[in-house]
Design brief:
Elements (H helix, E strand, L loop, with lengths): L28 H7 L5 H11 L3 H14 L4 H13 L3 H14 L4 H13 L3 H11 L9 H15 L9 H14 L4 H13 L3 H14 L4 H13 L3 H14 L4 H13 L5 H11 L4 H13 L3 H14 L4 H13 L3 H14 L4 H13 L3 H11 L7 H13 L3 H15 L4 H14 L2
Helix pairs in contact: 2-3, 2-4, 3-4, 4-5, 5-6, 6-7, 6-8, 7-8, 8-9, 9-10, 10-11, 10-12, 11-12, 12-13, 12-14, 13-14, 14-15, 15-16, 16-17, 17-18, 18-19, 18-20, 19-20, 20-21, 20-22, 21-22, 22-23, 23-24
Length: 438
């Protein structure tokens, strides 16, 4: 007899790596006949102990029984379930696999094995087990459990941080689950997230708002809706939403970080102390530390910002983005030789990083290395269009190398692109043109 109360719930927030596998055809009548085979009295007694969560008694019955009957699919499943409940993961996995082998058409064995493997992050093996489960007969009361299999597949198939995915496939999985059981708040959140990832922002917003209408305290729904509002630069509405959400969940890190972002976007002084307080509460959180570093730069405190980047780099010394941010702070602090060394390192680590080439070009110019500046500008131009400041670097570098025609050409490009925004450099360019074109 299938015992839905005993199945372990797959955590919906788990970020799982991608694995795609074909589904197995549904069981036919002959295959189902083996599932209906009589259950031995020993297994009946073991299941009675399982219902009482008496794992020791159940195991004491099942272990000797399986020694004598190693291919009893029902006993193997029950033994696997007992091991699973006792957190003996390796034993449970092995026993679930044997149960599936003994009866390939057992819905409960495929489902439980798939969920267990998914909890362990073994998606390459978990997905096909869950896919098979969706094709099998779950019994007259098995619809909620089959819906669980579809929901687990949706979590596996969705794109997430650090993995690829397919929003269409994940959405289809979720729709199959909703055919079998009512929509849950987790389903609504998943649907909203999938719509957002697919670029269907209107549908995502409706889903978040629908959930908040029934559960205004839902931190994930508030965070999701706030993310959309921030993306649309609807900062006042996002601020109101986040302040209300934080009344329900004070000091919630994602909500607090979002509020700080919104306040900073509106140039409100409250942003910096808010993120500083969050950092004090979570000093080892790299994302919060980086956010504080960025806000300190915006506030004009490059030195304090750079101390944070140096701390982050101690843990991730080859992170190109951190190195670029560190190098830019060194430029702000007028530490040009140090900045040159940092940007030179980044261009070797990440030769496709346009910001690294921009930084190297500027630092090389400030350290009187015009040939390096020209090389860096050449590399930068592969990724970014020219702007007034890059034209100026081209011009002064060619000028320093006495390549007068090229220098004059780029001085003209600079004056045209700048349109009076950098008056001191424009004056310099015009003075040099008077000499170069004399």
């Amino acid at each position: 007899m299938l015992r839905s109360a005993f199945f372990i719930v797959l955590l919906c927030a788990l970020a799982l790596p991608l694995a795609g596998f074909a589904q197995t055809p549904a069981a036919d009548k002959e295959d189902r006949a083996s599932i209906a085979a009589p259950i031995s009295p020993q297994v009946v007694d073991a299941e009675a102990a399982i219902v009482k969560a008496d794992w020791k008694t159940a195991a004491s019955i099942l272990t000797p029984w399986l020694v004598a009957h190693p291919d009893d699919a029902k006993a193997l499943f029950d033994a696997a379930y007992v091991a699973d409940a006792q957190n003996r993961v390796d034993d449970a996995t092995a026993l679930y696999r044997r149960s599936v082998q003994a009866n390939p058409r057992s819905f409960e064995a495929h489902l439980s094995l798939g969920l267990l493997l998914a909890r362990q992050g073994n998606i390459e093996d978990a997905r096909p087990e869950l896919a098979v489960a969706t094709t099998l007969d779950a019994g007259t009361d098995g619809a909620p459990l089959k819906a669980r299999a579809w929901r687990a597949l949706a979590e596996i198939d969705r794109p997430a941080a650090g993995k690829l995915g397919d929003t269409t496939e994940a959405s289809d999985d979720l729709l199959e689950a909703l055919k079998l059981s009512p929509e849950t708040p987790a389903d609504t959140l998943l649907a909203a997230s999938l719509a957002e990832q697919a670029g269907e922002l209107g549908a995502a917003e409706k889903a978040y708002r629908r959930l908040l209408a029934s559960d205004p305290k839902s931190a994930p729904a508030n965070a999701g809706l706030a993310h959309l509002l921030i993306a649309h630069k609807q900062y006042p509405e996002a601020e109101t939403l986040l302040r209300g959400a934080l009344l329900q969940s004070p000091d919630d890190p994602p909500l607090t970080a979002q509020l700080a972002t919104v306040l900073a976007a509106q140039n409100k002084a409250e942003a910096l102390p808010l993120i500083q307080k969050l950092h004090d509460a979570h000093p080892t959180d790299a994302a919060i530390t980086r956010m504080l570093a960025e806000m300190l730069v915006e506030s004009g405190d490059a030195a304090a910002s750079d101390r944070l980047y140096i701390a982050l780099l101690a843990a991730s010394p080859a992170d190109p983005e951190l190195l670029v941010d560190h190098g830019q702070n060194l430029i702000r602090l007028l530490k040009y030789p140090e900045a040159f060394a940092v940007f030179n390192k980044v261009t070797q680590l990440a030769p496709n990083n346009a910001d690294a080439w921009s930084g190297l070009a500027f630092a090389a110019s400030k350290t009187a290395q015009p040939s390096v500046t020209l090389h860096a500008l050449t590399q930068r131009s592969k990724f970014l269009p020219e702007v007034a400041s890059s034209y100026f670097l081209w011009a002064i570098s060619y000028d320093a190398l006495h390549q007068n025609a090229a220098a004059a050409t780029y001085y003209h490009h600079f004056i045209e692109a700048d349109a009076g925004k950098l008056p001191n450099q424009e004056w310099q360019a015009k003075q040099r043109l008077l000499i170069l074109e004399k």
